[in-house]
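Quick start: what a row looks like.
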Amino acid sequence: MIITEKWPVLGRHERAAEWLRIWTDLGRAPRTIDAYARGLTEYLVMCDREGVDPLTANRAHVAYFVRELTERPSRRGANVVSIDSGAGLANATLQQRLVPVRLFYDFLMEEGVRESNPVGRGRYTPRGRSGGHQRGLVPRLTKLPWIPNDSQWMEILAVAAEEPVRNRVMLALAYDSALRREELCSLRTDNLDPAHRMLRVRAETTKNGLERVVPYSTPTGALLSGYLAHRATISRARGPLFLSESRRNHAQPLTLWTWSKVVRRIALEAGVARFSTHTTRHLCLTDLARMGWELHAIATFAGHRSTESTLAYINPRELHPTGEKLRVAC
């Protein structure tokens, strides 16, 4: 099993390897499996180090694991933009590490190996003697999304204007169509409808399996036309839209990590370190709200199953017409 080759500790814990094998057989995305393997590996390493059998571990052992995570210094060091946990890992990262541990214990309960889950989850029950909201093991922090102000946005666009056409069209599409990073990098040539300035976001590339068709602007269409002509000098084959131009991976599909590095470089050069690959999605959805779109329409555009997810993307205190500035800059 490839996953145990990458994470050897899983090979020493038969039940853990079995659980991951089931998720893999169910067709979960490779990145999801990798994230689950990473989180569970860290927990199992802690168990091995402390002499704890993970099959019989209790809440105190999980609490010790949480304390380790909260005290761990970040490997990014000076590149850390903000830390909302008050320690080395952000609150969202803590939640991400605990999810596979909780799911693993859910699996053990279903298999009759355990009677309870030491991780638990936050839930709401009808009010009564013991009813009400029960907090999860680690409080979940929900913050308003960060959006650059006008001057910061103009700095980003000034730097982006000097980028190669591929990077400019990717930034424009990421905003116009509110694309997630994976959706953007997974676009294919046959997902485009230039005549109607529409693109199809395939279900298998989305976070929740919802396919959608979204528009892009006229200036972005012109920029895209220029990129397609440039792409033909790299490869005339149909397939992934965005290709690498490096010597090492020439004409290969552009990876998520390469695009993240491009955006990070632009952000640092512009002096706006908080700008990320997801910021354009926040900007787009916030601008749609500013223009008076109804919430359910924005949710459909974004590919959200629930309007609650959409609300988390819109910062009512940061609404400003950045969209028009992007179109002009492109």
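That is the whole record. The chain has two domains: 2-134, 150-329. The chain has 15 helices and five strands.
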